[in-house]
Task: structure prediction
Amino acid sequence: MASPDVSSDLVSLQDTHGLRQFVSTATRRTAAGSSSLLDVDIANRTTRRLQQLAVQPTHDVSDHNLVTWLFSVKRRPPRQSITYHFRSLKRLDVSQFSNDVMQSELFLKPATTTNGFADQLDTVITDILNQHCPLQTRQKIASSRQVNRWLSDRAVEAKRVHRRLERRWKSKGNRNDYVAYRQACRVANKEITKARRDIYSSRIAEAAQDPRRRWSAIRYILHVTETKTHRSADESQKLCNTFVVFFDDKIQKAKEAIKTWLSSHGTQPLQFDTAFAGSPLDDLRPPTEDEVRWLISTMPNKSSPVDSISTSVIKSCSDVFAPLIAHLAKLSFSEGKFPSRYKTVSVAPLLKKKELDPDVASNYRPISNLHTLSKMLERLFMARTRPHV
Result:
């Protein structure tokens, strides 16, 4: 180039592809004193990774000047190990498990108090589960990739064959191995696509009659590729402490605001409510086993982190758990007491919007995960009080 300016043709090419030439001064000088721009540094027009670009003289070491810049890259976070616990419920013999529960003290010698029977229920069922499918502990490397539990057995096997053939081809470089590897790639892609289509269709079909579940299924489909971020143990503990202080302060402020409003108005808060004219609620009738069995059948197939008994176990053994839950509800209604062990919940903070600062506690919405059995007791209670409200 005869001048330090970028030619119009190059500028036009850059504009077409959304690029920009960051070097704007001459980078080559001749002995005769002329200069030209020969060295280019082209990147995306809106990039922020190129910073402090400068053209510096080489002091006759070369006829080209030295072009320097700072290039920022995203640092890969350190790999973290996650410890998790699970039961291999697929190996559970439902028939034998049901027989063991029916021969246990839950049926032969049940506790006579609400808290006693609730503790007995969790303890005895946990002990029997430990005999059939013991609780196992594993560690894995935290991954930011999407969860692939929806893959079918055929898709998993196709991926395994595809990876095995890929390793063979790369180690030997054989043409036949490459052809087999490419065929396995196509088979794996078809199986993965079919598995994804099947899980999406089944999720929407299962939620067809429930708008909330249908919206949840659609959100799952739209955001299934979002990456996950994992915090270290120290970062998680620090964030938990921040949440405790923030939400405790928020609750105290709400209490003070209600107290101040009541004291300043001096009126009865319920004086404008419409008086109930129906039949009074004299007692809480105990639930029947059929009612509890129907309630179990309508439960979603998911468990809470605080559950000692998996929801899938309750649903697969509904004939066994129906009389137990009915007895627990009967004790709770007669004593007017909610089981103490079910008053503890697991609170999961959910970021309100993904663009918000994850280190600010006010940007989160607390989601409480209750015991499955506590939600069943609540629904049984609400079914009896709703006609009187």
